[in-house]
Amino acid sequence: xxxxxxxxxxxxxxxxxxxxxxxxxxxxxxxxxxxxxxxxxxxxxxxxxxxxxxxxxxxxxxxxxxxxxxxxxxxxxxxxxxxxxxxxxxxxxxxxxxxxxxxxxxxxxxxxxxxxxxxxxxxxxxxxxxxxxxxxxxxxxxxxxxxxxxxxxxxxxxxxxxxxxxxxxxxxxxxxxxxxxxxxxxxxxxxxxxxxxxxxxxxxxxxxxxxxxxxxxxxxxxxxxxxxxxxxxxxxxxxxxxxxxxxxxxxxxxxxxxxxxxxxxxxxxxxxxxxxxxxxxxxxxxxxxxxxxxxxxxxxxxxxxxxxxxxxxxxxxxxxxxxxxxxxxxxxxxxxxxxxxxxxxxxxxxxxxxxxxxxxxxxxxxxxxxxxxxxxxxxxxxxxxxxxxxxxxxxxxxxxxxxxxxxxxxxxxxxxxxxxxxxxxxxxxxxxxxxxxxxxxxxxxxxxxxxxxxxxxxxxxxxxxxxxxxxxxxxxxxxxxxxxxxxxxxxxxxxxxxxxxxxxxxxxxxxxxxxxxxxxxxxxxxxxxxxxxxxxxxxxxxxxxxxxxxxxxxxxxxxxxxxxxxxxxxxxxxxxxxxxxxxxxxxxxxxxxxxxxxxxxxxxxxxxxxxxxxxxxxxxxxxxxxxxxxxxxxxxxxxxxxxxxxxxxxxxxxxxxxxxxxxxxxxxxxxxxxxxxxxxxxxxxxxxxxxxxxxxxxxxxxxxxxxxxxxxxxxxxxxxxxxxxxxxxxxxxxxxxxxxxxxxxxxxxxxxxxxxxxxxxxxxxxxxxxxxxxxxxxxxxxxxxxxxxxxxxxxxxxxxxxxxxxxxxxxxxxxxxxxxxxxxxxxxxxxxxxxxxxxxxxxxxxxxxxxxxxxxxxxxxxxxxxxxxxxxxxxxxxxxxxxxxxxxxxxxxxxxxxxxxxxxxxxxxxxxxxxxxxxxxxxxxxxxxxxxxxxxxxxxxxxxxxxxxxxxxxxxxxxxxxxxxxxxxxxxxxxxxxxxxxxxxxxxxxxxxxxxxxxxxxx
Length: 1003
Prior knowledge:
The protein is mostly helical. Helix content is 64%, strand content 6%. Strands 8-9-10-7-11 form a five-stranded parallel β-sheet, with helices on both faces. Helix 5 runs antiparallel to helix 6 (144-171) and helix 42 packs parallel to helix 44 (933-946).
């Protein structure tokens, strides 16, 4: 069935026809017009003039015929608009579903049931109608006919929500009524009646804290959007909910805007608006708003967000926090949780929806694995990035992603942003980020990511400086405080240096007790903020300190669990902090109005009490997230660490690292694992500490391999330590895993004999643990082949293929059956059995293409390319290299990318080929990957021989002989010796290809 979505998006979907996703916006608009006027015949002439007013009548009619033809092809004869001579009309069809029709039909059925007093039927139909109304009609379209129908449909849905709430309240279902009341507020956030209804429901369920949050959010929206305070009815209801106790901070008579007016920022606003217009024209990018703390960066991006919303864009905001327990990709997750993205994610292909659910799990998502598959699944990072990027693009409208405090952003989020902005050249996506100039420059990962985007001309810099003296005075006047004379304005500017935050905070200081003016002198901002906190009641100061200790935004449930205050006192305290502009509504909870205010509140707490607050917050987080502590593992670790419980911090740090690895944030995972080791350093020596350390070391191996490759010294040190601990703890499985990992390390580093010895030792130990027997035989086989003993290698490869207890090696990161067939093909070729070599190669490629694991396919293609090269099959070599290069570029595979580069150089030949081979060799050396170096050098020598550079070839082959001797790398040694003999002083001069094609004896 074809489904047409007009509410909250503009899209046509047909699971059986890929063309549905490519239908033009004009065709959707035409379809929408006919649907909205269903049953009414529409003149073709009128439609052509309405949708193509800029074209001639003849051209407009032609355009109309074209779009109608496309719609008929997509919707079929049953679902297409019906034609009757010069008119067109829309009628319902069982093969085509339009969400507007569904909404109207279900709403009508609900109202009919209500009129018949059939409550159950009313609720069923009303629920379907409200669920179908996923957003405004055709967002982003502003034609008069759209606006008229949009207002009508929105009002119909609002009235249906109100009726549903009434019915649910009468039936006693307060919980469902509360959810419906929230939906009503989403539809019309400026109507106070919706907030009052929600507050009454929350109070009826005994949740006064939630009612207070609703009131605060109502006040914030009204102040921001309209510059007014809540009306008397809303305020009176709130006061009644708070009880008879007087409010700790008086409500001001006038409205002092929560978001100060933009003054003195004409240049910056002009740059932001110009960049947004470019985005609407299909030019994606990052606009970076930089400046000192308190200079007004966030205020500018808030203004940009309002402009984007007015243009029908999807706007999502997130912020980064400077605490050590930050979560990888938290800003991306926060964006994807916004309502418009959530509704659009449901329309994604299940393949991409599964990738989104790695980061933002749904109720149906599979639980996270208890152990890391980082090495096996590393290739999926690209697919994960693509899936989450598709989710951001899925609404089909311009997108503005706002990111506050980029200087504290995690490395994975910056990498994701670079991926998103590099997807296409005509995306209507803009990322607006703020950053503190000095702190951002100290973060290498942030500066590198921004630098790469800047090189691609995707970055627009907007530098924000302090206000001038005149603008400072104007801002102070706009805040509604007492008028200042010129000398007071000069003092204000000298004290605040033109920083808007300083000006706002100075203006919020209450008058002194003697009424002579503002309380206290101007001092620095820290002093001003501290003085503002001191004016709060003791409970409010305590709550501010507790919230500051969390380090992020907070909700009242957590404060209630961690605070000594009863619910009523807590509600009063948070209300006081809100009235004094110390906290503001944020998301489903609250946040400080600025990080500098948070820092001031935290400084006001003494060290002993901080210790207690952090421990209470950790216990509260555990209680509130029972059964899903993975969601807050990093926060729990940081709170327990600061609360003096390193044992609990260690547990949650390790789990946070595993969660990070699960979303391919390997750099963050490694950072968290290293934090675990730091904690372990402070623990007493003994078996318990060793057991914890070995678990951490085991977790570190996969991210280390993924980030730095098999040959990285940190990986080698980690595996050596893992083996030492495994022996000390008498855990043979740990020792076996470390031995196989060390085999890979030493083989790639070029320590062939040592790698073989490690494989033999692993094989001896595997007799007691068959789970590792296949991998141990694989290690022995690989080492034997490198030493030039192909028949021994074939024997162990055969046993390995029969012994695998798992499809994948969680240590090596490949499907070992693929790896075995691929590597065995070289062994068969060395003994002269070309038929067996070709069969093993074909088996590896077939399995690599069907196993759904791109890294294993890259392994198969790499070994196949080497086999084609040594056999002299240039046609097959070119085909395999092309596929290998595309795979490595797509998934950023490094090691086999260098194989491709060197072999392409050999195929290319000449000076360009030599340059390509040298680049590949240099990359391998940088990775400390010296395995097969005699073979790679011989390819360089062959090209040098072909162009007549005999002396250079002789030197290259001498280097290959030295490499073979140093690294015990003998499988290609006879060929190197033969080539070297042919370029010696008495050589006869056979071509490199002739020499290469001679049979090669076993060493």
